[in-house]
Structure formats: C-alpha cells, structure tokens
Amino acid sequence: MDPDAQLVQQCLRGEGPAWEELVKRHTRRVFNLCYRFTGNPAEAEDLSQEVFLRIYRTLPSYRAAEGAFPTWLSSVTRNLLVDHYRRTKRDRVTDSIEDAMPQLEEKHSTARTPDRLALASELSAQLQTALGRLSPELREAVILRDLQQLEYEEIRAVLQVPEGTVKSRINRGRIELARVLKEMGVRPH
Amino acid sequence: MVWNCSQIEERLSDWLEGRLTPDEAQAFSTHSAGCRNCQELVENVQALVRGMESLEMVPEPAGLTRKILDATLGPRKQSSPREGWTRWIPAFWQPRLAMGAVTLAAIALIALQISGLKFARLRHTELSPVSVLNNANRQAHLVYAHTARFVSDLRVVYEIESRLQPQPEAEPPLQPPSLPEQQPQETNPQQKSQSERRRDRSQIRTDALVAELSPSPVMGDTWTRSSK
Question: Which of B25, B66, B137, B196 is close enough to B192 for a disulfide, judged by CB 3.0 to 4.6 Å?
Fold first, then answer.
C-alpha cells in the first residue's frame, strides 16, 4: 500500500501520530503551492492551515482508488486558492496581464519578502514576480507542472478540465512567463 | 511539412517534452533554425523550464507544522526531545509515584542512620558488610539504651511523685509496672536461670552503653544498679 494511503487509514482509526506524519510530509508542498500562487508568504501560511483543516475534516472522503493522496491534496489546495482568489478579487485592480502594471510595484515589494524568508535563488524571486503577472489559469497550470512536478493526468484531475486544455494552458503559461521575464530583463540560465 | 511561427508557438511544449512525431519534430527544427524570433522564443522557454525544474521548494515558515497540528489536534505541550537516561524522567516524574519516592527516601535515610556511616569522613573500610553490621548492631543497642534510660527516668519520677503524695492507708501501695530486669525473684528459678543469664548479659551491655552516654551517675543508673 502507498505510504500516504497507509497513513490515511491510520488517521481514520484515530492515530494522532499518523496525522502528524502526514502533515510533516506535505506541509512544504502545500505552502509552496499557496505561496507561488499568491506571492504573499503570510497569506500562504494562513491558506496552508486552512488546507490542512479542510483535509482533516474531509479525510474520510479520500479514496485511494481514485488517485494518489498528493493529487487529492493539490486539488483541495487549488480549490481553496480559487475560492480565496474570488473572495479577494474586488481588492485587486484587474487580473489581466496588460493592466497588471499597477500591481508590479506590489509584486516588487513581494519580491523583497522572499529575501526576508531567506530564499537563496534570485531566479526564484524574479520568477515569483513574473508569476504574479500571469492570469490565474495560466499561473496555476505552470506552477503545478513546472514547480510541483505533477503529471498531466494529475493536473487534469486537480483542475477538472480536459487534458488538451491542461496542455494548452501550460504551453501558453510558459511562453507568457518567458516574455514577462524578458521584459524584466531576466534571462534564465 | 512546413510550419509557421504560430505552429511553433502552439507546439513548443510538445517539442520540449518530446511529444512530436519525427516529421513534426523535423518541421519544428527547420523553421526554428531559420526564424530568429522563434529561435529566441524556443531558447528562452527552454531555459525557463530548466530553471524552474532545478528550483528547490521554498522552506515553509518555522512553526507552521506546529500551528497546523494545534489547529487540528488541539494545543499540545511542547517538549524538547530528551536524550540518554533523561528520556526516562517523564515516565517516573508523576504524582502517583510521589508517595513511593518519599517512602523510599525515608527508608534510605533510616538505613543510613542505622549503618552509622559518616559521609564527612567516610573510609572504604567502613563500607564492608562486617563494618556495616557492627555499626547497625551498635546503633540498635544505643537506641535500646536510650529507651531503657528514658523508662528508668520515668519510673524514678513516678516513685518520687507517689512518695510525695499522701497515700490512703486502705489502699495497697501502688506497684510500678514491673520490668523484666526488676523482678527476677518472682519467677521460677529453674526456668529463669537461662533467661536470667541472657538478661544479665544484655543488661551488662546496656549499662555499659548507658555509662558511655553519661559519664556521671544518674538516678536511673543508680536504680538499675541497685536492683542487683
């Protein structure tokens, strides 16, 4: 049996240490998904807690036969990010790329935040800034594929869209990201 | 097969991930080689994807896991991991074991007192079983001697008090409770001989210890000696 599926079974039997192990295994992955999508570490931390609370309450609904635990976890995280994005949409100017310039200053300040969190890679910080300029659909597709290393089938399950749509979003997201980084004067190598 | 720039852009990720057929891959490479814009786009996207794949995950903030566990399992006491023998401390540091620990400590103190060991000037010879036994024996006799002396003193005080108080004639004089060593004549002489001898030996030892404790004669000692 998959180790995560085994831990889930133990959690459902009420074994606290199994839940602790499950949380420790996946906290970083969930935090990264939230952080890369929101660009805000404090928001990402709060969202991560919400994700695990939701997982804790709905754990009996997980079925190992329907997919791996990390896929289900990513799906719950993504849905929560979408809900959060819609809730905070009115606080944003727009989510289109052309009108994202006013947000660029905010994203630059966000870029300083990764320094505060002691991020080693300059590309990581610049990437985070560039990701903020993508639309949510393209952003989540690139994050799931290139930063979370999910397979196309898993991304399809998370996003609940056809595989052709997944490929199209990933492709357009990568091209758009490369163009934004070029505008910022960043050349990944 | 000849491709244009929009087809290159559309199938870029398929080419990167090796999903093009041989003919498609050939058309892709041919156009890219001849178009500067497409060549630059392909190189930038290729470098970006390689860069993102090499990035490590951002470390989560310190304490996030604990916050998640507190929110789901409820607040828990944080305990730093113990090492070595200290790992056993929590197992024994419990209220239900407190009385047992106090009892053990009291027994140890009494045993130390009985053994007569003086830790300030402890020598290794004093730790031998014979030495400990002798010390314990000596301590026992000292305690017995103290008790005997105390009882004798009480008898003396009682006698004095009883003589000072006027006694009604009809009442027989009160007899103090008899101690074994005070009434040897009231028992069977034959049966008493061995026990009397044992009491004599014990009495001699007690007298010696009592004398050791109080060099000047006291009424208790006089009374005890005068019974012989």
Answer: B196
